Amino acid sequence: MKLLLILLISLGTVNTGKVLVYSPSISRSHLISNGRIADALVDAGHEVVMFIPEYEPLTEFTGTKKAKVITLRNFKHILATRYADFDDFGKLMLTISRVGFMERLEFENTMADMCDDLMKRRVDLEQLRDFQFDVAFSEQIDLCGVGVIRYLGIKNHLWISTTPIMDNVAYNLGIPSPSSYVPTIEDNDNSDRMNFWQRAFNLYMSTGTQIVNLLATDKTTEVFRKYVPDFPCVREIAANSSLCFVNSDEVLDLQRPTITKTIYVGGLGVSNETKPLDEKFSKIMSKGKEGVVIVSLGSIVPFGDFPEPAKQGVLEAIKEMSDYHFLIKIAKKDETTKTLITGIPNIDLVAWLPQVDLLSHPRLKLFVMHGGINGLVETALKAVPQVIIPIFADQQRNGRMAERRGIGKVLSKLEVGKKNFKESVLTVLKTPSYKKNAIRIAKMMREKPFTPEDRLVRWTNFAIDHGVLEEFHVEGSRLSGIVYYNLDVMFVVFVVFSFFLWVLVYVFKFLLRVIRLDVSREKKNN
After folding, report:
1. What is the greatest pairwise CA distance in the chain?
2. pLDDT per residue as tens digits for the range 269-316
3. What sections of the sequence does the record tag as coiled-coil (predicted)?
4. Are 193 and 404 in contact (CB under 8 A)?
5. How far apart are CA 209 and CA 211, in angstroms?
6. At what angle are helices 418-430 and 308-320 packed, to 10 degrees?
7. 60 CB contacts (<8 Å, ≥6 apart)?
């Protein structure tokens, strides 16, 4: 009620609308991001439906606490069985340095298959059409959502980039992305300062990423054209999005070109208020002579998925850092790690932790994390230094972002062991500049002129009031690659210059022959 009152005061009279948030259950973090958008809009007085195609089993988690949820179940769960040859997805990610383009394309093909499975159940989608939504949100990871929203007759589409501006989002919206200083998002261990070889690699990643994007979106478009023959290309629909909400913070993020329709809302739903901890966590946070360190690597790749030598090395390093108490988040069924910590008094294991509340605790000195954008923004807002162990997707790039801001240090997942873990942790703990920079960044993020909630609600209201925001459209998104990069102009200039050069050479040769003839005649006359 307090948030609603603040919004009512700040926004004046609220014109409520009907809002659809399309969010397939691809991962818990994506549901969290999209659920926070849904909840903020409910608080602002809108009627919000969060539609969740259950690509992965949900249990009871939906990401939203306030919006109406419609779940479409009984899919083939292709995503859950894709890595059947491995114990799970996390262990696979820890065996490779990065995901290659062929693996990315395989994932996109899988998503297109899931989209086809969804469209075969078009009767189930009709319940959404009956709501007559004013606007609809979908995220960048699954352009099936873009197509479904158009199929339902909703023209006003608002895009969500659940990470810093994704490469396919930038490409489709016409946002300039110079590869000399804008690192691609997925599996790219670069910041915005790159040497020659890093720029060459970034250009390679940028080119390959766009090829994958084109192939993937063409396949998704084919899915819709099976059922609606004249259906537009999903890239075209995405390019006409009225707005794009970016789940990052412009103070924290690496600077890059943007356009009017990109709205940063990183930190949405992260309260500045500190909630009291329960007895269990209060007791844990009182341990350790110098304070507490949290180790939490997300829900997809828990700590227990690391190879045994890496886990043992980390635990040995923790035992030697006896002045600090370590709180490690593990999977519920991880009995191996429970056995390994026997005899190590400065460790507590939990299967769940109140992350935002713990980040506010004054005795928390460091957060060892995987670099997911939600956790990274939350940690930055609470001024807690970080050690980032990136696993996949945007996490390497996010880690370099934290290093660039001087609030964290990256440790490669393939180099996790006793020496490297201890060195990384102690470097951040014992170097005052990390905490100093974290305090500065947090203060700037909190004191920006408008809160993430303000931006989300005000711009969504604007889109509802004015319809499709064609005025924000970037013409570059409608141009072919040849025209966008002026390759046709450069070709003509090259041809003209070559012709001029040829004429110049021809005239020079002609004059040279004339001179030689004159010289020859003079010699004969003499």
Report:
1. 116
2. 888 877 889 999 999 999 999 999 999 998 778 888 888 899 999 999
3. none
4. yes
5. 5
6. 40
7. none
pLDDT tens-place string over residues 172-229? 999 999 999 999 998 899 999 999 999 999 999 999 999 999 999 999 999 999 999 9
8 Å CB contact between 413 and 203: no
Q: The tokens of 42 are what?
A: 């409910």
Enter the pTM of the model: 0.88
CATH fold of 2-181+210-270+450-473 reads Rossmann fold (3.40.50)
Q: What pLDDT does residue 469 have? A: 92
Tokens 């859950």 sit at which residue?
Answer: 80
What single string gives the DSSP state of each residue in 52-118? EE-SS--TT--S-SSSEEEEE-----HHHHTTTTSS-HHHHHTTSSS--HHHHHHHHHHHHHHHHHH
Which residues are bridge partners to 263 per DSSP? Answer: 245
> Which CATH code of 3.40.50.2000, 3.40.50.720, 3.30.390.50, 3.40.50.1000 fits the domain covering 279-446?
3.40.50.2000
Per DSSP, 161 falls in state E
The 3-class secondary structure across 291-345, one letter per residue, is: EEEEEECCCCCCHHHCCHHHHHHHHHHHHHCCCEEEEEECCCCCHHHHHHCCCCC
